[in-house]
């Protein structure tokens, strides 16, 4: 089966740095096939016959041994990513006028109630839940008013990994 591993918090700032060649090698050493990476933010495409939970655990252990950091890994099938991307309105983009992000959710946060739990101001953005993800679109002029930046300090933030809409659409098209 074809999967995408979404690594949370790598290559952001100075912490948890790993180059994509090393990341591909780590996946290949675990016996995964047809390994490829997409951009430098922890998106790894690969094939395996194992279940997603087992894959996530194996990858997390390998990352801990390799880079010495505990990295949360969310593994999704390409079909799951395609389903999520199909829920994104076609006019949602990242451009000078608007910003669109997809927060892929770990099981601990994967509920529609997450919209009401986050400290955001919904009147300034369009936020939607789809199984496995939370997606939002905000006019750039309203970004600060939306308080999206307050998500970072919220207890549920540790159970999501965020990608921009362009990355989400690319991964969905695999």
How would you describe this protein?
29% of the residues lie in helices and 27% in strands. The protein has helices at 20-29, 52-67, 78-86, 114-117, 143-146, 165-172; strands spanning 2-7, 33-38, 43-47, 73-77, 98-105, 126-130, 133-139, 160-164. Helix 3 crosses helix 6.
Strand-and-helix sequence, N→C? EHEEHEHEHEEHEH
The main pleated sheet reads as: 4 strands, antiparallel
Count of alpha and pi helical runs: 6
CATH architectural category of the largest domain = 2-Layer Sandwich
Features:
Alpha-Beta Plaits, single chain, four-stranded antiparallel beta sheet, 174 residues, 6 helices, alpha+beta, globular
Chain-wise SSE layout:
Elements lengths: L1 E6 L12 H10 L3 E6 L4 E5 L4 H16 L5 E5 H9 L11 E8 L8 H4 L8 E5 L2 E7 L3 H4 L13 E5 H8 L2
Antiparallel strand pairs: 1-3, 1-4, 2-3, 5-7, 5-8, 6-7
Helix pairs in contact: 3-6
